[in-house]
Amino acid sequence: MAGFYCLRRLLLVVPALALLSGCGGSGGGSGGSSVGSGTLAVRLSDAPDPSITALNVTIPKVQANINGRWTDVAAPNQTYNLLDLAKNDVLLGQANLPSGTYTQVRLFVSSATVTDSTGTHDVTVPSGSQTGLKINVDYDLNPNEVTTILLDFNVDKSLVKQGNGQYRLQPVIPAVVKVLSGTVTGVASDGTATLTNASVTAKYLSGSSYAAGTEVNTSASLSDGTFKVWALLPGTYELDLSYTDPSTSTTKTAVVNSVSVAANQNTDVGTVVLH
Fold first, then answer.
1. Can you give the C-alpha Rg of the chain in angstroms?
2. Where is the domain boundary, 180, 212, 237?
3. Domain containing 254: what range?
4. What is the pTM of this model?
């Protein structure tokens, strides 16, 4: 089956700034000599950032690249609060496209604002509305099949607060074929109460998807202590949790070993007590 072949070739994490000067081709249309067509769906999820309360991003258009040419996938023209996507992803859109190997997806971002403890601020998005934010995916769209790409917008690593207090978006977005990836959920606790804004890091231990020791993705616990780590390819992981008490500045940690992740499944590790 082509699924496991694709799984080996998927991009892990790509900072969008490194890609803004890459790839030729512009506008709609398709390339290549592929035969037939399939349906491509693009979904978006989020790894939350404990330092902000909202990140609203307006996405007018989504495109995919085949053989250096871009073709339209969707034109949602909607504003999404990325922090609302920590538990449930959202469909940006889908389209029937020529089958073949697609190398990138790009999100056009016309505007963005962030809300922190001091108010709501405009966010600079370099080339977001002109050339789009490009994410390497390298996936096969097979004839007469629906392929769903999941883009996990890692807000904590993507939003940069500059020295002048202004914000800049430098997206870090893991991208996977959704049916080939899994998730991990749990609850962060200190043994008596749940913990808000505990950081969660998923590190790869063994398997064929990544090199051992690779930090694959991160997340943070929500106000009820729950967390969800998206876009994890199959294998065995270690979860590293850390929480700093804002009133005492003391830090508590926990490690969960041998977390098994399977394709298209969620692994619930239950309540994790940090000491």
1. 19
2. 180
3. 182-273
4. 0.79
